[in-house]
Design a protein that fits this description.
about 325 residues, alpha/beta, Rossmann fold, 2 domains, 11 strands, globular
């Protein structure tokens, strides 16, 4: 299971800025609401909230049965926004996702019928099961928050977030996601199995009652308008020039690391900056610190870098290389 991203306990505590107190309070309310159903998912929830504040998309990778879909559904519920789930399959067409123009005989004209992608929070289950043509339909949506059909552009209403899932084990009938699409995800969150105590807690909760009823009882704690205010507060988090240089050095190092065939793009640098600022805001700070940068480095980079074949054969992972890079790049003081 992904390591918690809380700062070390020996760091000095900072007094929350008055403008950021609502962000930390909203994050606490969301944690409490999701905790009514989810067990041991604090790190995943914090990253999802950071992505939401940073206006980014999330790719969740994990074996079946680790609550990937449930987490996205619960997040949509507590945020009180529209939600759509799209099950990607090999026969899915782009129009099944984005929508299509329908001829109206009464008006003798075509009208656009929006697809499920026009929800505020969209869950795409098993994103790697759809062919390249359908994958390409997501490029404009995820980057520009709009859909172009028959030469007409249809903007999506904010907030807009894609949470996609994929299974790392089963590859039959799947398509590898192109780097250009992976680069549009702010985070890749890797979900492992729960600990023994967490799994016992899951069993106890299932014995106590119906899971779906518990989901329906989760309160709605944040509106779309409230989220827009929190996003503005996160963007206002201050980043010292030395920290921007630190971020650039980390990403530059991915491009010359001997274990990597492909390094991070400038979008990765922007992603680390915006995600780090969002994480700082969630923790009630109006300034970025190196711990924020280090906490989001692996989720931002792990799907954007590619190991050399020999490193893969040696059992190395992208997280291993990111950890090595964080050791190499001097931390600003």
């Amino acid at each position: 299971m992904e390591a918690p991203i809380s700062p070390p306990s020996d760091l000095p505590m900072t007094t929350p800025h008055a403008d950021l107190a609502p962000v930390a309070a909203a994050a606490a309310r969301v944690h409490d609401a999701l905790g009514q159903v989810l067990v041991g998912q604090g790190d995943r929830i914090e990253l999802l909230l950071a992505a939401l504040l940073a206006d980014g998309h999330v790719l969740i990778e994990g074996v079946p049965g680790v609550a990937k879909t449930l987490t996205a559904r619960l997040l949509a519920r507590v945020l009180d926004v529209s939600f759509a789930r799209i099950q990607f399959t090999p026969d899915l067409m782009p129009s099944d996702v984005t929508g299509t123009s329908v001829f109206n005989p009464q008006d003798a004209a075509f009208s656009f019928r929006p697809g499920p992608i026009f929800a505020h929070l969209v869950l795409i289950d098993e994103i790697n099961r759809a062919p390249a043509k359908t994958q390409a339909a997501l490029f404009e949506v995820m980057e520009e928050r709009q859909v172009t059909v028959d030469g007409t552009t249809h903007p999506l209403a904010p907030p807009f977030m894609v949470v996609a899932t994929q299974n790392p084990l089963e590859h039959e009938g799947t398509y590898r996601l192109p780097e250009a699409q992976l680069d549009r995800f702010l985070f890749k969150i890797v979900v492992g199995f729960p600990s023994l105590d967490e799994e016992v807690e899951i069993l106890e909760r299932h014995e106590r009652g119906n899971l779906m009823l518990a989901v329906n009882d989760v309160p709605r704690v944040l509106t779309a308008e409230g989220l827009a205010e929190l996003r503005a507060a996160a963007r206002a988090v201050h980043a010292e020039p030395v920290l921007r240089t630190y971020i650039a050095q980390i990403v530059q190092e991915t491009r010359r690391h001997p274990a990597l065939d492909l390094g991070g793009s400038p979008r990765a640098s922007v992603g680390i900056l915006m995600a780090g600022k969002a994480l700082a805001a969630l923790r009630g700070r109006d300034f970025l610190i190196p711990d924020d940068v280090q906490a989001v480095a692996a989720p931002v980079l792990r799907h954007r870098i590619r190991l050399t074949p020999d490193q893969e054969m040696d059992g190395k992972t992208p997280d291993d290389i990111v950890a090595d890079i964080l050791q190499r790049v001097p931390v600003p003081r």
